[in-house]
Write a structure and sequence with these properties.
With 471 residues, this protein is mainly α. It has helices at residues 17-32, 38-48, 53-69, 71-80, 83-101, 107-136, 141-183, 185-191, 212-216, 236-249, 255-263, 271-300, 305-333, 337-356, 362-387, 395-424, 427-470, and strands at 8-10, 202-204, 226-229, 232-235. It contains 17 helices and 4 strands.
Length: 471
């Protein structure tokens, strides 16, 4: 007998999922494509407010930290609300922050509206969209994430030109209002994140045992099993019922257990998950700092602003190609997302270290083409490496913990990279340090892969030996 309410839902790998992919793309495109243009957009108001480079860096650091630390809220929120609701709330919150920033008259105002309010909304919306994508896609998950991210990279190439036009026409305050308006496209994207239901899912029906009370109370046609206890007739049904009601009504007075249950902290006991989170966080720090320092490095070797812009555009173009082409290939070949990330992150590190030793010339251009392509392959699989090592049920909390980990690593390690740059007075040394961080990820994951392979092999040999003994 099967309970009709118990149906396992399987990712449809298509159908409405492609609209979810579009919605996710709209969210990230609307809320994240502005980041590389921060200096261009805020240059004049920060000068008027006499905010120095340290203050400017603080605004962006707080934004990045809030985006990542919002991961603390993702798990609990997605247990209570749908990812559509959380993404919509986050989108509106972020857009509100952008619109309120148009009235900024102090650095504190910018921090409160742009960094804190906007960062919190952006973090909630993007994390919810990622969970939605993972719900609707399984075998084509890499392809879906690649498509959703490719639009953002393309927008990063075009947005600076758009901002330049807006600033010329309306000034900072008018431009911010227009930007806040276009960011509302993220709310439209959030509406496309329809929860997975029977219209989308490929249902898998499984036999479910009949209710406990029904099996326990049936014996030789009797509806109850009676016995005498101290002269009182008692049914097993009563015993079971009382026991069950006591268990249900037993209060959970252990506060720590409630916290563990809410945030799924038992994930921290999983060695594989911890290795993935730490390694991915190290790569994220190296990636974000490399992106920040690349223009300064190119300037230090004598490139003009036009040449620097061309190099960055080439990198962005090959990045987009990788996000569109590679996921489809790897999904069809059945490669694990984490394995792809593991291999390509090592190649990215090597490519960047080679770039750091180059001067102007055709060789440098070729290297930028290659590392842009490799970067696209790693970033598509960065978040997917986390989703691959946990169940879909625990994904919101798992991704939330990963976001918090990224925030902590950025806060701890980015100043260290800056300090190394100041002491060494060399951007090349800094790039090599970032490569060494990536290599820590590559080595730690490699040790885990070898250990698990040996363990599986030992288990297979043991099972084979037992089978031979039985025969």
């Amino acid at each position: 007998m099967m309970n009709p309410g118990e149906v396992k839902k399987k990712a449809p790998d298509g159908g409405w999922g492609w609209f979810v992919c579009l919605g996710s793309s709209l969210i990230s495109l609307s809320l994240r494509s502005l980041d590389p243009s921060f200096g261009l957009l805020f240059h004049d108001p920060l000068e008027e407010l006499e905010v120095d480079s340290t203050g400017t860096s603080l605004i962006m650091s707080i934004l990045d930290a809030i985006v990542n630390f919002s991961g603390l809220l993702i798990g609990p929120l997605l247990k209570k609300y749908s990812y559509r609701q959380v993404a919509f709330f986050g989108s509106v919150l972020s857009c509100t922050g952008l619109i309120l920033t148009s009235r900024a008259n102090s650095m504190i105002h910018i921090v409160c509206t742009y960094s804190i309010l906007g960062g919190l909304g952006t973090g909630l919306a993007i994390a919810s969209a990622f969970v939605a994508l993972n719900t609707f896609f399984d075998k084509k998950r890499g392809q879906a994430v690649g498509f959703s991210m490719a639009g953002t990279t393309l927008a990063m190439m075009l947005v600076p030109q758009l901002i330049h036009i807006l600033l010329s026409a309306y000034g900072f305050r008018g431009a911010m209002l227009v930007i806040g308006g276009w960011a509302l496209h993220s709310a439209v994207g959030a509406c496309l994140l329809r929860p997975l239901d029977v219209r989308d899912a490929k249902d898998i029906k499984t036999d479910i045992d009949p209710p406990e009370s029904e099996t326990l109370l049936k014996k030789n046609g009797d509806t109850t099993l009676k016995k005498m206890e101290n002269g009182v007739e008692v049914t097993k049904y009563d015993v079971i019922k009382n026991k069950t009601s006591k268990e249900i009504s037993k209060p959970k007075d252990n506060y720590m257990e409630k916290i563990k249950e809410t945030f799924d902290l038992d994930l921290l006991k999983d060695g594989v998950y911890l290795n993935v989170v730490i390694g991915s966080s190290l790569y994220y720090v190296a990636e974000s700092n490399f992106k920040l320092m690349t223009p300064f490095f190119l300037s230090s070797i004598g490139m003009t602003n036009g040449e620097i812009a061309s190099c960055l555009s080439i990198t962005a173009f090959t990045d987009i190609l990788a996000r569109l082409i590679l996921p489809t290939i790897f999904d069809r070949l059945g490669f694990k997302k984490r394995t792809v990330f593991w291999i390509f992150c090592m190649l990215v590190g090597i490519g960047r270290s080679i770039m750091a030793e180059q001067s102007k010339g055709i060789t440098l251009i070729i290297i930028f083409v290659v590392i842009g392509f490799l970067r696209g392959a790693t970033l598509v699989n960065l978040n997917l490496s986390v989703s691959e090592c946990c169940s879909l049920k625990k994904l919101p909390s798992a991704f939330g913990i990963f976001m918090v980990s990224k925030g902590l690593f950025v806060v701890m390690m980015s100043p260290m990279i800056g300090y190394i740059r100041d002491v060494s007075e060399s951007y090349a040394v800094c790039i090599h340090v970032m490569t060494s961080m990536i290599m820590v990820t590559f080595i730690s994951w490699g040790f885990e892969f070898v250990y698990r392979s040996l363990k599986n092999r030992k288990s297979i040999l043991s099972d084979k030996a037992k089978k031979e003994e039985v025969e």
